[in-house]
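Quick start: read one record
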Amino acid sequence: MRPKTPPPLRLVLASTSPFRRELLGRLQLPFEIAAPDLDEAALPGEAPAATAERLALEKAKAVAARFPDALIIGSDQVAHQGDRTYGKPGTRTNAISQLQAMRGKSVIFHTGLCLFNSASGRTQICGVPTEVRFRALSDAEIERYLDREDALNCAGSAKSEGLGITLLESLRGDDPNALIGLPLIALCRMLRAEGVQLP
């Protein structure tokens, strides 16, 4: 008699981002959504890449008590240029300031990713940087962009999956999905390590 194969673990996305939800849906795996409730501020002296990866882990663990037998995905993104970081602008005024500061420059969008197995405690974490070179944008271009694109809930105010692509000169990175908020290539590698079949 063959031993019983345990049922596959539930897959949970610890995010309410519609962009991450859409990206995860591309893998054609059933998954659930859970909202992590935590402070996303950087710690004093924390490097931007470290912030993104720490928050990805904290988001996954924040919902683990509700899903004791699951593979939980956490992700976070921090945009930075040197020591200056660009978070979600929240207001049009902040978005204008961000885009003015980034025009003509290269900015790193560092996306932290975590896959936490709440049954075994196994944790996989990585960071996926994307270098984004902004065009030398005029104030009028910035205003027209913000008139037409809701970018207030997007790190760095540049929604590359929408009209924000017009603001850019070039992109360099290992996974174009990382810039939108969920590095699918790295996530697939992590899921396979947990026995998930893809494709």
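The helical segments are 18-25, 48-62, 92-102, 139-148, 176-180, 184-193.
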